[in-house]
UniProtKB/TrEMBL annotation:
Entries under Gene3D superfamilies matching the protein: Nucleic acid-binding proteins (2.40.50.140)
Bias (Polar residues) ranges: 1-12, 511-524, 544-561
Protein name per UniProt: RPA1 related single stranded DNA binding protein, X-linked
Cross-referenced PANTHER family: RPA-RELATED PROTEIN RADX (PTHR14944:SF2)
Residue numbers spanned by region Disordered: 1-28, 476-569
InterPro entries reported in the protein's UniProt record: NA-bd_OB-fold (IPR012340), RADX (IPR040893)
Top-level lineage group: Eukaryota
Biased composition (Basic and acidic residues): 490-510
SUPFAM superfamilies: Nucleic acid-binding proteins (SSF50249)
MF terms (GO), sorted A to Z: single-stranded DNA binding
Length: 758
């Protein structure tokens, strides 16, 4: 798929149709036109276009009249019925786009050549579009009308509001559960990843039911392990859920599995713990109802030898046997019978294991070894924006993740957590600062050999998150109150109570991706700008360097909300004017006017600036820093402007120019150093190379009570350090962050000298 495939092209056979470039002329679409169509009593534009294309012998037309329509939904699913042995290969996924002309709604198929408009966040819900070419396709496996296919579209601006009350022109599009227009799959996928349950096929209505055990002969897991291979009718099992993994979607084109999902649950009785796999259609029926801690009665299951390369999570009780020779399988073909036993019916003589959390405090985390598994609890003080990283370079599948900070009051430093999607979108997409937050089954990632020391937590396959917010009770100083044991203990007990009841409480609320690039340079040329506008806007500072060695993503990427009153890793620029320090090498003065190309990506966009959290506007802030939704949600009340929210405190950013070895191409990138007091007395950065390697600025040792150094002094130190690197050859690792809507930011991730490996 070429880079231009997502941009509308004029149809040469149709005279008089002007096709402006969508990125340049999107503003030409007037606001409010969509809402006036119905008011004027005009005939539906959608109906007229459909009749026009049906009557056309070519099965495609350019509409006689082009009017703006509103986008109400963009929904993704697996692309089927396309040949896979052609070049270039067709995409894995396709999209249905629901539009409204003010009279009718219509669900249309988006031609796969336009998929890039969705990936770039240009085509999204809530905007106006003008459609310049449509075609009609038929699903030959279903009886019904043809499907409108959007072949050429111009994307406009966001609408202030869109009516959802218009009916569908085609009543088949109102069916429940919603079904994709093409292929045989019965469901849509989430818009930005495959791990989250999405749509109305995912049920949440399974309730505990009392069972009469007098005539039920239960078998223990240890006995089952010894006898299952010689037993035809397997007896019932009575187990407790100890762990629940996130969903795995394994759908592939032209495979006949309707709902290709899988999830692992670790279950246990008094004799052992074993893995249980739930397959396919059982996942939409049961996944959202099965919580950690529930007791299950299982009948009509099957057993198979365990997969040899899968690592089971550690048992909650070290005295319980870990059974790794077999796996329990729940598949619809066996007609399994799953009963949730009420907790009040659970008898002590069953000796079912209880949940045993491995809570650690922030002060204890410093002593934990690499890869240690633990649980944490505290108050959220920072919520980063949602980002995506590719699972495999050649695939269209992404991981969704965000960075968060949790304070528990035992240390000046918060927990830094790399939070991947845990198949809990109802929480993951509604995370706000100043709420009690629990993360389970986190893995410690640390490297004590670098400065500053690398230490953060990342989610595992079995991680789950819980959030509680007491409206009207949380204040801006509650993060400080978390230092008191009573606050932390209260949150911990409440979390345990939620898990025991099998419930999760949470407070109700752009496709972005990131990749890395390397380039060699003769010398970096930095320009320092620390800006504070009258509105209080500042440039963000990254969090401590906590990049993963495998994914190479880091929490220093642009973030959303920071509620700390005294964040230890940011610095306030109090000057009302721009503070500017600049250095240019003589080589740059000689070469900058004779370049073949000069790429300019040093701008830090407003949405990349961390904002102070406002409880009153938490829904708005949450929407700004979440991925774009698949369906349009009308705004509540007047929509504020992002610039009106104060930025979190920050040191500023460097604009760094990197010159290629051949002195023909240069690129401007942003460098976001972090101001840190960690090890300030013993570790003083005296070269820019060390500073850039760890994205960290250390202040000079101070004998006074002040904990921060003036921004001018710090900027001057960096500029002085870089001047010592004149004409040095270096290797630069760059973060390329696609913000969507044709906006991108490029950050300096690390910098190396060629003769060094670290």
């Amino acid at each position: 798929m070429s880079g231009e495939s997502g941009q509308p092209q004029a149809d040469p056979s149709q005279a008089g149709v002007d096709m402006p470039h969508p990125e340049r002329n999107g503003a030409a679409v007037p606001r409010g036109v969509v809402r006036r169509v119905g008011a004027l009593g005009r005939r539906s534009w959608i109906q007229k276009v459909f009749e026009q294309v049906i009557d056309s012998p070519r099965r495609w037309v350019t509409p006689l009249e082009v009017v703006p329509v509103a986008v109400l939904a963009v929904q993704r699913y697996l692309l089927e019925d396309e040949p896979r042995n052609v070049k270039p290969k067709p995409p894995l996924y396709c999209f249905d786009v629901t539009i409204s002309d003010g009279v009718y709604q219509e669900k249309c198929y988006l031609d796969p050549s336009l998929n890039s408009l969705v990936y770039k966040n240009i085509l999204k819900v809530g905007i106006e579009v003008r459609i310049f070419r449509v075609s009609c396709i038929y699903n030959e496996k279903r009886i019904g009308q043809g499907i409108l296919c959007i072949d050429n579209v111009l994307c406009g601006e966001l609408l202030e509001s869109v009516s959802l009350e218009t009916p569908f022109r085609n009543s088949a599009h109102r069916e429940v559960p919603e079904r994709p227009l093409r292929g045989e799959k019965s469901h849509y996928l989430p818009l930005w990843n495959n791990e989250d349950p999405y749509g109305d096929i995912w049920l949440n209505n399974k309730q505990p039911k009392e069972h009469e055990f007098n005539h039920t002969k239960i078998i223990s897991l240890s006995h089952l392990e010894m006898t299952w291979s010689n037993t035809k009718n397997l007896p019932p099992l009575l187990v407790r859920i100890l762990y629940k993994s996130k969903l795995r979607y394994y759908g592939k084109p032209n495979k006949k599995i309707i709902e290709p999902y899988q999830t692992f649950l670790e279950v246990a009785d008094s004799s052992g713990t074993v893995s249980m796999i739930m397959w396919n259609t059982l996942c939409p029926e049961w996944y959202k109802s099965l919580h950690v801690g529930l007791v299950l009665l299982l009948q009509n299951y099957s057993i198979r030898k365990s997969y040899p390369f899968r690592m089971q999570p550690l048992p909650v009780d070290p005295h319980i046997k870990l059974i790794s020779t077999m796996e329990i399988c729940l598949n619809i073909r066996d007609f399994p019978n799953i009963i949730i036993i009420p907790e009040k019916q659970v008898k002590p003589e069953w000796r079912l294991p209880k949940l045993n959390h491995r809570f650690v405090t922030r002060s204890e985390l410093d002593k934990m070894p690499n890869n240690y598994i633990c649980d944490v609890i505290g108050v959220l003080v920072f919520v980063g924006r949602v980002q995506r990283s590719k699972k495999k370079e050649s695939r269209e599948d992404f991981w969704s993740y965000r960075w968060i900070h949790i304070a528990d009051g035992t240390s000046e430093q918060p927990f830094i957590v790399e939070l991947f999607s845990t198949s809990q979108p109802e929480i993951f997409e509604h995370i706000y600062p100043m709420t009690y937050f629990t993360c389970t089954q986190l893995k410690v990632v640390r490297n004590d050999d670098q400065v500053p020391k690398l230490l953060y937590l990342t989610t595992t396959n079995e991680s789950h998150i819980f959030m509680t917010c007491h409206k009207g009770q949380l204040r801006n100083d509650d993060a400080k109150n978390a230092k008191r044991p009573s606050t932390s203990e209260a949150a911990r007990k409440e979390s345990q109570s939620q898990e025991k009841d099998g419930k999760r409480h949470h407070d109700d609320g752009s496709g972005r991706s990131q990749c890395h690039s390397a380039c060699a340079s003769s010398n970096p040329v930095p320009k320092k700008r620390i800006t504070q506008t009258p509105s209080g806007k500042q440039i963000p500072v990254p969090q401590p360097e906590t990049s993963s060695q495998t994914k190479e993503s880091k929490p220093s990427m642009p973030s959303s909300s920071d509620c700390r009153e005294n964040p230890s890793h940011t610095f306030v620029v109090r000057a009302k004017k721009t503070i500017s320090d600049k250095w240019e090498s003589q080589l740059w003065r000689d070469k900058k006017f004779s370049l073949i190309d000069h790429l300019r990506y040093s701008r830090v966009h407003p949405e990349s600036i961390p904002r102070k959290f406002s409880s009153e506007h938490r829904h708005f802030l949450g929407q700004q820093f979440n991925s774009q939704p698949a369906k349009y949600v009308p705004p509540e009340g007047k929509v504020p402007k992002l610039d009106h929210f104060k930025s979190a405190r920050s040191l500023g950013h460097f604009e760094l120019t990197i010159l290629g070895l051949n002195h023909e191409i240069a690129i401007d990138v942003a460098f976001l150093p972090m101001y840190s007091l960690q090890d300030a007395q013993t570790s003083q950065v005296d070269t820019l190379l060390t500073c850039m390697n760890y994205s960290c600025v250390y202040p000079q040792a101070s004998t006074s009570s002040e904990k921060t150094t003036g921004s001018r002094v710090l900027a001057g130190d960096i500029i002085k350090a870089v001047s010592k690197m004149d004409r040095e050859h270096v290797i630069c690792i760059l973060d390329i962050c696609n913000l969507g809507s044709n906006k991108a930011e490029v950050y300096l991730h690390k910098i190396y000298k060629p003769n060094k490996t670290s």
